[in-house]
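Ticket #404: bound-state structure for pyridoxal-5'-phosphate.
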Amino acid sequence: MLNVEDIRKDFPILSREVNGKPLVYFDNAATSQTPQQVIDAIVDYYSNYNANIHRGVHTLSQEATDLYEQARQKIQAHFNAKHSYEIIFTSGTTHSINLVANGFSALLKKGDEIIVSALEHHSNIVPWQMLCERTGATLKVIPMNDDGELVMSEYDKLLSKNTKLVFTNHISNALGTINPIEYIIAKAHEVGAAVLIDGAQACPHIKPDVQDLDVDFYVASAHKMCGPTGMGMLYGKEEWLNKLPPYQGGGEMIAEVSFEKTTYADLPHKFEAGTPNIAGGIVFGTAIDYMNAIGFDAIAKYENELLEYGTQKLLEIEGLKIYGTSQHKTSVLSFNLEGIHPYDVGSILDKLGIAVRTGHHCAQPIMDYYKIPGTIRASFAFYNTKAEIDALVEGVKKAKMMLS
Ligand SMILES: *Cc1c(COP(=O)(O)O)cnc(C)c1O
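RESOLUTION: The complex was predicted; output attached.
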């Protein structure tokens, strides 16, 4: 069992006030809060180890390099990658996806097809559209249903020998739906296509096993799992990372440089040009340690309780509709009040110290499907409480009274 009162003490921001009220932070799907252990690790790095890595013979540089490479091994272990060099440090999910999309420019031709899902974040749509423009490949979309689930029978029909790549998120950030990625991966492999899974929204809640999934690429951002912003990872199977050309040129990524020809460094350095976010990489490891110490089973169980409680309480409000009603979902509640713009509700909740997200959540195609401008999204983390959900429900009732 997870002790939420103790856990809350690790997060200094949770004891601040907003607009004279105790902060209720329900925007976890946009970014998670940072525990003291991670904040301390950032201070420790800059106080004791700050140096550039992989280059210096001096002690500080070697210590910083060791810490950075240890963090890579922690991430390898967490995702169960076969080799630590299959973990590439990036600035986040968006960067990771662009790295893969750019690499595939060299591998695709006219007539090839890329399949994406209707539940994608914009960062997982735009790079593929750009890739299609560059290569002449076509983009196909797995449709969704009213519950906010992908329709697998339609996916089956889209697959063919022309399919070269399939992209979907593991969990939808707008609705919380957990997608059947095991099925998606297995079916794509039957036609010889590679699969990239966007795990940005899954990794705060579950621990993916990339070997077990047999996924080709898996990406995530540190800032959604108690780590720093501007930090993320790309897992790629060795054979795929070797096939892709480098994304950016610069220091760190070369073996030998002359004006006639440059040869590239081995993995992972081939994809890590320039001085990286060293502190960010190290404390990404700290954040993963922190979450593992609590345990992903305990986190999932507790968040499911919050989800059930929140769903039930919100549905007691007349005229409130929840979007994303799959049986397989995480602790995201996307909803609207009949006849009221989500933005107005969000503003009133903010006055009450309650942070929710309003709008299209970088997933406009989903909003178009439901024919709505956006939703109010409350997303819960393991440090939230039922009392906070009560405050949200009271706030929504108040907003409804004031706005109707
Ligand atoms: C947040 C998010 C992203 C983008 O992550 P960045 O850290 O902004 O690069 C992509 N996909 C999903 C599903 C997300 O939730």
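RESOLUTION NOTES: The chain has a mean pLDDT of 95.
TICKET STATUS: resolved
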